[in-house]
Amino acid sequence: MLLTSDSPLEMCALDAEHVASVLEDCVDQLAVLGSIISIPDNPAATTETNSIDEIAKLLNGQKHLEGRYEELVMNEKNTSEMSSLKQNMKSSAQAIMKSVKLNPLATENLIKLQQDREYLQDLIAECLQEVSQEGSFEGLIRATVEEREKKNKLQETILREEDARKNVRALQRQLLELKKSKEVEMQSRNEMIAHLKDQLQETRAKTTMERKYIEKECQVQKVMKNKQCQMTEAELQAELENLQIQLEEENKVNKETEMWVKKHHDQLQEKVEYWMDKYER
After folding, report:
1. Measured distance CA(109)–CA(198) in Å, rounded
2. How far apart are the C-alpha atoms of 169 and 174, rounded to whole Å?
3. Which residue would you say has higher pLDDT here, 207 or 129?
């Protein structure tokens, strides 16, 4: 392809006609593709009857046909073969559409494919108009740059989402580990609480037994002390009674002795008086 010296994006008239012919054919093919694309009303009723390898095989065949068609357009020959290639490409596109429809993700695939086809058809139509009128394809370059920027932004968004997913997964793992750690800690605390409850119950039972034992021991000591006091009191009472008997006996002996001494004193007094009277005479 020859470019003019005025602008690296401007083409000579012959190249512009060739490019316009190719672009026009592309627009026609995309229009035909849009007419044969149909989105099923009930996507849930589709079944997976074609494998991904079969779809890839059909796409490779379609790509080969398109490459051959572009080659013929650039060389401007074999018009009969071009017509045959058009028919083959149309049949291949229909087969691809049928395989895509039978895919479980047919609705989403067809919607995305239809959107991409419409965008590409409009872009090529604008580029065709620009090539035909101005012999340039600056609009295509701008659209390509814009799409590349969108793709880069989308890629950045995807990367950010992937990083966010990784962070979420990491946080989920940390949360799971923290949950497991808390469960282990809670189980350990519950075991410790159960152990302390057992110890408390055992201590209460031991304290109750010791209290009962001490109460019984105090009662026994009290009874023994009372008995000991009673025995001591009885002994003292018996001793007191014995002393009282002895005292009475001592008093009785003292009285008898006193009476005997008085009687004897009286007798002696009489004798003294007798002997004094006798002496005086």
Report:
1. 68
2. 8
3. 207
